[in-house]
Amino acid sequence: MSTIDSKSYAKVVQNGVHAVETVKELHAAGYAAEDIYVLAHDQERSDRIADAADANEIGLQEEGVFTAIANLFRSRGDELRAKIASLGFTESEAAFYEKELDLGKVLVIARKPD
Predict the structure, then answer these.
(1) What is the model's pLDDT at position 96?
(2) For residues 33 and 106, what is the distance between their CA atoms, to the nearest angstrom?
(3) In what order do the strands lie in the sheet with 106-111?
(4) Cα 21 → chain centroid
(5) Mean pLDDT rounded to a whole number for the chain
(6) Taking every annotated instance into account, which residue ranges of this chain make up the domain General stress protein 17M-like (predicted)?
(7) How many Å apart are CA 39 and CA 50, to the nearest integer?
(8) pLDDT in the model for residue 9
(9) What mean pLDDT comes out for the span 7-12?
(10) Alpha-carbon gap, residue 44 to 30, rounded angstroms
């Protein structure tokens, strides 16, 4: 896993099966379901993987109201980068992860609560 800061981790995996396995590993390591997020390029795929893995999607609480509203008018790529950045990643990290999502991969993010 890649360390983003002392509390946040991200891992790019090949598919939903690997995402579910990674989430299980994070649960075993002590992360709560509400602190684990999965993200795929396709919204429906994100929904399915999050449900199967007992993880969250990045939503209003993480993004904030203004970002969530702005995402209604953004392209999917811009929306994904904003969602990733809302969890504390830099713009360049968010761009890197979004390109991986473009390739059909899945992003698993875990963070310890403040």
Answers:
(1) 96
(2) 17
(3) 2-3, 8-13, 106-111, 36-39
(4) 15
(5) 82
(6) 10-104
(7) 8
(8) 86
(9) 83
(10) 27
pLDDT band at 3 (very low <50, low <70, confident <90, very high): very low
Beta bridge partners of 111: 8
Per-residue burial over 20-56, b if 16 or more Cβ lie within 10 Å, else e, is bebbeebbeeebeeebbbbbbbeeebbeebbeebebb
Expressed as residue numbers, the domain containing 67 is 2-111
Number of domains in the chain: 1
Torsion angles phi and psi, residue 12, rounded to 5: -95, 130
Look at residue 75 and tell me whether its pLDDT is greater than 80. Answer: no
Residues with Cβ within 8 Å of 81's Cβ and at least 6 positions away in sequence, in order, are 91, 94, 95, 98
pTM of the model: 0.81
Distance, in Å, from the CA atom of 24 to the CA atom of 18, rounded to the nearest integer, reads: 10
Token look-up 């109201």 returns 65
Q: What is the pLDDT of residue 24?
A: 94
